[in-house]
Amino acid sequence: MSQMIEDASAPQSRSEWLAAILAITIGLFVFYTSFFGSFETLIQRAIFVAMIIPLSVLLFPLGRGKTWRPVGAAIDFAMCAFVVASTSYIVVNFERIMTDLPFAEQIDIFLGFGTLLVILEMARRSASFIFPLIVGGVVVYAFFGESIPGAFGHRGFDTGYLTEVIFLSDRGLWGMLVSIASTTLAAFILFGALLLHTGAGQTFFDLSARAGGKSPGGAAKIATIASGLFGSISGSSVANIATTGNFTIPLMKSLRYPPRFAGGVEAVASTGGQLAPPIMGTAAFVMAELVGVNYWTIAAIAVLPAFLFYLGVFTTIHLIAKRTGLGAVSQSELPDWREALNWRRMSPIVAGIAGLAFGIYNGNSIQLTACYGMLGIIGAYTLATLTSGGNLKQVVFTLLRALEDGGKGVVIVGVLLVAAQVFVAIVNLTGVGVAVTSSILALADGNLILIAIIMAVVCLIAGMGLPTSAAYVLVAAVFAPVLIQQGLEPITVHLFVLYYAVLSVITPPVCVAVFVAATVAKTPWTGVASESLRLGVTAYAIPMLMLIYPGLLLQGGPASIVMAVLAGLGFTISVAAFFAGQPIFGRFSSLLWSVPAILLLFPIWPATISGFALVCIFWMISKRSSGAGLSQDVAYDT
Question: Which chain regions cross the lipid bilayer (predicted)?
């Protein structure tokens, strides 16, 4: 694992060297602005865009490996030069734009829409065609909305006005989401890169192995813990599967776990990392700005739902493993506790967390807090390396690779959030979000349960094929107001839509996380999708539980929180047992797990206590039945 993270191949070609240098420059820019503070609004954002576009072009060149690559190279160079020119124009004219609110001239129209096209093209290359198609669609909608009859029509906007919104203001290409990408989000991506490169990668994997490896289904539990830890930092389910999955899936297969099950475990665990505090991938930083609350508030209220997510996955794995004989990892293959907790490997993690704690206690900004964490990591790693026989050259090399990895990690999220900001600006400008809200409310006729179900389905569909941040921004901008109008807390609604936006990556048919896991597992994606849904079924219910039990998000008094915890635990275990096919006392008795699950959907004390008590009784009976040999099923087919 550490070899995978720390010893990636060194740059070979000229373009790889340029990409490495530019990525390190971005990493240094992020570190500098985190510590000393950001530049003026548009200047900070324009410089950020001026750096990420050339790097994205180097990472995703047009026509790579094709005979027409020289043509692609010329186009790439032209795009880079164009964006550097347009961002320089913004920096030079910063004061005029912010104070005079200038009318768009021909040069502004040319630079504005040209830059937007470059952004959409790079979003297509780095992610998929879906999101740039959506963003391009709403821009076209802004032009021709006056031709659309009914509630979705609007008065229409001319080219000059749209240029002023998109290019000559802090609402479009240089808007709030770009600020988040260039400051708080970039700082934590760099924090995560430093953490992984200084030894946390191997430590996470070793601790995961020791925590779950010896129990039934141990390899799957290792994958769940490790992928959850990595997924929270990486900010991408797909990237996480491509890294940790290359270790965990072969480990499971070597113990004769079915390939489809191995792929499903990795897909679900990596997806859950996007919802796990404290870092929560990247979307939590965006949510903090959209909702207008402190980031740490979001991290705190997300703890219980994330715990239930992984409790559901763990319980399902455990019960399936007990019933079908999925084995544990042998003692000889597990890392030694002393090595896993070696102070030289643990010190950067501890120092990084201590730095974050200091920043929080001191009341510093999120990016400065992340910077303190980075300084802690760098100091601890340097001391640990020099006192264990290493040299300064090794320290510098590791830190440069971390800066490079962090700079590259910022690119995809940065490009997508620039495009997402244009989407948000146009949605607010045209009022299409209000039209969507009115349509859904009319369809559901004020029924909150029906509205929530419609919203869940819409968010799952809207988020398909999109990275987490882009999916969340899309559904939050358009669909969150529907539930907020029903009197729900904005933070509850935004977590609700975030969950379904994240879960879209394991939801067929456009389940990109499943496709990647199936490729690593070398098995058809349909089987992996089926196992992902079975292992992650409780995750689909958690957002609904947030609406039913506000105490899951620490809302209400102590009684509300206690009721929510009991209901959440009971519901998660009963649903996991139901879908794991865990018998209670006979072949078809697993169906009885649905009884407490249904009871726990009613937020009243009699139902909560009865449902939780039934779960405890059924669990004890099923354990005794298992001990008597009544719950053993045939082994999983391989």
Answer: 17-36, 42-62, 74-91, 103-122, 129-152, 172-196, 295-321, 368-390, 410-436, 448-464, 470-488, 495-521, 533-554, 561-585, 597-621
